[in-house]
Amino acid sequence: MEANEPRFTHDVTVELVKHSASDADVLFAARVSTAGEQSLDELKKDPERSKGLINFLMRDRHGSPFEHNSMTFFISAPIFVFREFHRHRVGWSYNEESGRYRELRPVFYVPGEDRKLVQQGKPGAYTYVDGTPEQHKLVTETMEASYRQAYAAYREMLEAGVAREVARSVLPVGLFSSMYATCNARSLMHFLSLRTRDENAKVPSFPQREIEMVAEKMEAAWAKLMPLTHAAFVAHGRVAP
């Protein structure tokens, strides 16, 4: 495939690129309140007691001990996903690739066959159902044709000497962008409570599927780093402390 030939995908990329995050960080922060500085091997000494403390903190929403950690993710997703993502501001830091300083790559989002296409209901009470084969065909063909036209217009302006920051105006929100996103466990839990749908959640959430795909991959990576914290989050209704 040539460098400027559009590529279409329905997947997103989430990579945990660095972290300083463990259940021990929660215990370390929590126990300073009552017992002074604690050894970070406390979790190994008394795992049941440590598990109980984390569950207590989660249940009673003592949130600050969950902030003493850090995770940085590399995320590649459509621009419309990042527009929703950037609504999460407390406890988050972002750096996104710039269309002013680099030529944007022609990678575009097209829904997969399992993406529900039809919206039913009224505002506040929407449901989504599967589309017909004809609708999926229409969506795929229309999106791909639109993307090709938009990227050809972008390239035409660049080749004519138009500045990247001007030429990018013709590109759609289905274009993929990439960013580094850094958060702590507390801010991530708040994000997950809003951007994933789970039948066991105390507060229902109705995320757009594409940002939920990102959230699911972030949650899987976090669960491996902080299994006790993640288990407590799930056990107490997926409500951020």
UniProtKB/TrEMBL annotation:
Catalysed transformations (reactions): dUMP + (6R)-5,10-methylene-5,6,7,8-tetrahydrofolate + NADPH + H(+) = dTMP + (6S)-5,6,7,8-tetrahydrofolate + NADP(+)
Binding sites annotated in the UniProt record for FAD: 64, 87-89, 96, 184-186, 190
SUPFAM superfamilies: Thymidylate synthase-complementing protein Thy1 (SSF69796)
Entry note: cofactor: Binds 4 FAD per tetramer. Each FAD binding site is formed by three monomers.
GO biological process, one term: methylation
Broad enzyme group: transferase
Cofactors named for this entry: FAD
One annotated GO molecular function: thymidylate synthase (FAD) activity
Protein keywords: FAD, Flavoprotein, Methyltransferase, NADP, Nucleotide biosynthesis, Transferase
Pathway annotation: Pyrimidine metabolism; dTTP biosynthesis
EC number: 2.1.1.148
Binding site residues for dUMP: 84-87, 96-100, 168, 195
UniProt-listed InterPro entries: Thymidylate_synthase_ThyX, Thymidylate_synthase_ThyX_sf
Subunit note: Homotetramer.
HAMAP family, A to Z: ThyX
Designated name of the protein: Flavin-dependent thymidylate synthase
